[in-house]
Amino acid sequence: QVQLVESGGGSVQAGGSLRLSCTASGFSFSSYAMGWFRQAPGKERDIVAVLKQNGGTTYYADSVKGRFAISRDNAKNTVYLQMNSLNAEDTAVYYCAAADWMARWGQRGPLKYNYWGSGTQVTVSS
Fold it and tell me: What pLDDT shows up at residue 56?
């Protein structure tokens, strides 16, 4: 059974940091590109960061460049999102997703993701 389980969300004051984790099971994690998405209230879900299978290529949304960092540990089947200098605009539900090696890539990462987590809430208070 395929699972992506996010953790590490919570409430933090503006300027603070959080590290999200997403642990995968039920598929060959190291063969999948991993992405983090977020959905704020009343807005569409949007890409935050993407990391290729070998960790060599990344994409970051302009709004998080220089503040967020995506990384992965293939031995632990886990992808991370380190979030620093958080502000109220970062408040959202954060999702991780997995795209297999056959996925076509656009400018913002894979065009299709095979698996999704259920999300973790991040709330930043000003």
Answer: 78
